[in-house]
Amino acid sequence: MIKTEREYKDTKELIRRREEAFIVSAADLAARGYTPEQVTKLHEAMRTFHLGMVEEVEYYERLKRGDIGAVQGIRALGKHLIALRIAAGITQRELARRMDVHESQVSRDEHDDYHGITLGRAESIARALGFALEYQARRRTPEDGPGGPGDLPPTA
Question: Is the model's pTM score more than 0.70?
Fold first, then answer.
């Protein structure tokens, strides 16, 4: 997940350079006698990684426009807090200032996707960003798929 403007700019530049490299590589492979199908097959793994970076850039851009979406499960809360910061247009430094903590603390927390924070801390972060967290529970449905570790067995 892209978490800072610097990572965003670096990833965009890497995407640009890789797109140029694909063109050069395809031309080189064609000159060596590879068919277009073989070139595509040889580039397949690199393209998959490349498309992942493109998707991350698109997600970051959506967040910057304020298109946040809902948290899908408590395990996603940390990434959602980062998304809220990006959507608010606030840097890690500014969030640290608002929370009266050192910038390195916010950087470490975000690096770990806020793993293990309390709900109270999550609420403090959201409040510092100008958001309020709301909680909702609903009964699981078969469409939710199998649960994770520690899920309770279905009741009769």
Answer: yes
